[in-house]
Amino acid sequence: MRHFSADHLTRLTTAIFEAAGWPEADAAEVARHCTLANLSGHDSHGIGMVPLYIRSFRDGWLKPANTPVDRINAPPFLVIDAQVALGQPTATNAVQRAASMAKTQGVAILNLIDAHHIGRIGDYAEQAAAHGLISFFWVNVAGRPPIVAAHGAKEGRWGTNPHAIGIPSPDGAHMVLDFATSRMAHGKVRVALNKGERVAEGYLIDSEGRPTTDPAVAFAPGPLGALLPFGEHKGAGLAFMVELLSAGLAGGALIKDKPARTWIINSLFGILIDPLRLDPDEAARADRIASVTAFLRAARPQDSADPVRAPGDKEREMRALRLRDGIPLDDETWRQIAEAAAWFGIDAEAG
Ligand code: NAD
User: Fold this and answer.
1) CB 85 within 8 A of CB 234
2) Residue among 178, 266, 318 to mutate when testing ligand 1 (max atoms within 8 A of CB)
3) Nearest CA to ligand 1 atom 17
4) Distance of CA 179 from the midpoint of ligand 1 (Å)
5) pLDDT tens per residue across all 351 residues of the chain
6) Pocket mutation for ligand 1, best pick of 120, 179, 190 (most atoms within 8 Å of C-beta)
7) How far, in Å, from the CA of 309 to the mean position of ligand 1?
8) Are 102 and 38 spatial neighbours (Cβ–Cβ below 8 Å)?
9) Is residue 202 within 8 Å of residue 211, measured between CB atoms?
10) 219-221-223 Cα angle (round to 5)
C-alpha cells in the first residue's frame, strides 16, 4: 500500500485523458471526480477506475468524439442521450444544467441515458446541494453481465444500481445518502480482489447460488456468481425500480440486453427541487435540519469509539484524513494505473 497526494493523482489522470484526446476541461473533470471519490473513502469509484476506462477507450467503445445530444429540453424536463460520452463530464454538465433549471422552475426532472460510467453518484447530489437544491438520483448499470441477484434468485439480474439523496445544509455540511443497492459496491469487491483479500460473509453467492467470500466470483473469466442486494426484497425491489426509471422508460441500455464488454454504461434519473419553493423561510429550515441532525448524532453509540453519524459525515471525515495523510492505493491498483499511463507514454511516478 502506497500513499499519493490528491494533486499527484489529479495531474496524472488529467494527463492520461488529455493524451487520449479529450479536451483539458473534460480530462480535468474526470480527474476531479475520481480523486474526490478516493478522498471521500470510495476507492471503488476513484482513480482505480481509470484503467477500465482506458481499456474501454482502447477497445473502441469510449471515444472523445462521442457527444451527448438533447432529446427534450422543455423546462422542467431535460432528457439527454449521452451516446456513450465520457461519463463524469457528461453527467456533471447535465446536473449543472438541471440545477439552473430547478433554480428558475423550482424543480427539474433529468434523464441522462447511455453515458459511459459516471462514477460516485453522491458527487452529483453534492453538486446539487452546492446550488442549495434537494436532489434524488437513481442510476442503472448496463453493458456488463448482471451481477446483483434478484431476491430469492441463484443468479444476477441487475447491476449495482445506486440510489442517492442530497439535502443541502445551510452550514455547507450537506446530507448526502449515496449507496449501491447491492450489499457491497461491485468496485469494493474489485478492491478486495486486487488486495488479495476475502470479503465478509453475507455479500456474495457463487455461480451455483451458494454463499461465498471469494471476490473472484464477481468477475470474469470464471463462472460468475452474484452480489446480494441490500435489505433482501427491499433493496432488490429498489434495484428493479432503478433499472426502469433510469433506462427502462426512455430506452437507455438495459442490463438484460448487453453482452459482456469492457465498458460500463450508466443511465441516470434525477429530480432536483428548490427547497425555497417548499418553505421560503430559509432560517427556519436551517434550524430544523440542525436540530434533527443533532438529535441523530446525540444517540448513545454502541461503540464509544464509533460515533453515530449523519449521511455524508463519513465522507467528510475521510476527506480530512486523506488530505492530510494522502490517498492509499494497493500495489495491483497502482500497477494497472501505471500501465494505463504508460500506454500513452506517461510516467505515473513522475507526478
Ligand atoms: P456505502 O455502503 O459506503 O454507503 C455510503 C453511504 O452511507 C453514504 O451516504 C455515507 O455517508 C453513509 N454511511 C456510511 N457509513 C455510515 C455510518 N457509519 N453511519 C451513517 N451513515 C453512514 O456505499 P456503497 O454502497 O459501497 O457505494 C459506494 C459508491 O459506489 C457510491 O458512491 C455509489 O454511488 C457508487 N456506485 C456507483 C455505481 C455506478 O455504476 N456509477 C454503481 C454502484 C455504486
Assistant:
1) no
2) 178
3) 309
4) 4
5) 899 999 999 999 999 999 999 999 999 999 999 999 999 999 989 999 999 999 999 999 999 999 999 999 999 999 999 999 999 999 999 999 999 999 999 999 999 999 999 999 999 999 999 999 999 999 999 998 999 999 999 999 999 999 999 999 988 999 999 999 999 988 889 889 988 999 999 999 999 999 999 999 999 888 999 999 999 999 999 999 999 999 999 999 999 996 656 689 999 999 999 999 999 999 999 999 999 999 999 999 999 999 999 999 999 999 999 999 999 999 999 999 999 999 999 999 996
6) 179
7) 14
8) no
9) yes
10) 75
276 close to ligand 1 (CB < 6 Angstrom): no
Classify strands 107-116 and 265-273 as parallel, antiparallel or unpaired: antiparallel
Length of the chain in terms of residues written: 351
Ligand 1 centre to CA of 75 (Å) is: 31
Q: Could you tell me the sign of the dihedral formed by the alpha carbons of 193, 197, 203, 206, in that order?
A: positive
Work out the number of other CB atoms within 10 angstroms of the CB of residue 276.
14
Q: Which residues, 6 or more positions from 21, have their beta carbon under 8 angstroms from its beta carbon?
A: 64
Q: Is 312 in the pocket of ligand 1 (CB under 6 A)?
A: yes
A 10 A CB-CB count for 209 gives: 13
Tell whether omega for the bond before 89 is within 30 degrees of 0, i.e. cis: no
Per DSSP, 228 falls in state P
Per-residue burial over 139-150, b if 16 or more Cβ lie within 10 Å, else e, is bbbbbbbbbbbb
Block residue for cell numbers 494505463: 340
